[in-house]
UniProtKB/TrEMBL annotation:
Domain of life: Eukaryota
Protein name (record): Uncharacterized protein
Organism name: Trichoderma ghanense
Keyword Ribosomal protein recorded: no
Alphabetical keyword list: Signal
Signal sequence interval, chain numbering: 1-17
Amino acid sequence: MLFATAICLLLTTSASSSSLQWHWLNNPNIKPVSPLAHPITIHVPPDTDIWRPSLSKHNFTAPYLYTVIPAAHFQSVQVTVTAPWKTLYDQGGLVVAFPDRHSPNRTRFIKAGIEFNDGAPALGVVATDVLSDWSLSPIVTTEQQTKEGDAKATILVERDGTDAWVYVLENGGRTRRALRQVTWAFNEDDAQGLAREMQVGIYGAKPTEEAGEEHAREEGIDVSFSGFALRTGLRRG
Ligand SMILES: *[C@@H]1O[C@H](CO)[C@@H](O)[C@H](O)[C@H]1NC(C)=O
Ligand SMILES: *[C@@H]1O[C@H](CO)[C@@H](O)[C@H](O)[C@H]1NC(C)=O
C-alpha cells in the first residue's frame, strides 16, 4: 500500500512541472519561484561557495534555488547563465545534488556553469562524490556573450545510463560539446548506492571578497538565468 502511494506521487511529479515545489537554500527572506516560468536573477553575496576539499571543510553556503525529484526520473536539466564576472571564482550555473540525510558532509553534487579564473570567465565543472574535483574548459564561441560583453553559456546535465554527462550547448543550441562524464551519479556500485531523491536547480557563488578602494568588500554579484528546462520521466528498463 505504501509502495502504491509512492508510485502515485512520483507519477504526479513527473507529469506536470507546475506541481514542482521550489526551495531556497542560503537565501533567507526571498520567496522561491519557479525558474521554469521566467528568467531569474540571484543576488549572490561574497564568501559563498559550494565546494568540499575535505570532509571537515564541506561548504554549501551559496544561494541555491532547487526542486526535489525522484532520482530515477531525472533525464536532463539545462539553463543559460550570465553575470558581470570579474573576480576570481565568481560563478553560477546548475547544481544537481544527492543529499545524504545522515551526513550533510557526504552530500554528493555536480555543479556546472561559468567560473572566473585566470582573469577570464571559463566553463567550470565540479563533481563531488567523496571530495570535490574541478575542471575548466574555454568559452570558445563569440555568441556566448551578452550585449554588455558578459560571458554567457547554456549548460546541460544529462543522464546516460548510470552516468551524468555535462555539456555546453553551442551554435544556437545546434551542437553540444562534452565537458565532463560523471560515472557515479546514478550508479549503484558507488559506495553510497543509488540516491532515491535528488535536488536540481540553479546557484551562484562568490568565494572571493572584492578588494580595493572602489569596491565594498561585501559587494556581491548578480547572476542571471534564463531558459531553465527540466526533463523528467519514468525510465524504461
Ligand atoms: C565557504 O567558502 C567561503 C569562500 O571561500 C568562505 O568565506 C566561507 O567561510 C566558507 N564557509 C564555510 C562554512 O566553510
Ligand atoms: C562538516 O563540515 C563542517 C563545515 O561545513 C564542519 O564544521 C564539520 O566539522 C564537518 N563535520 C564532519 C563530521 O566532518
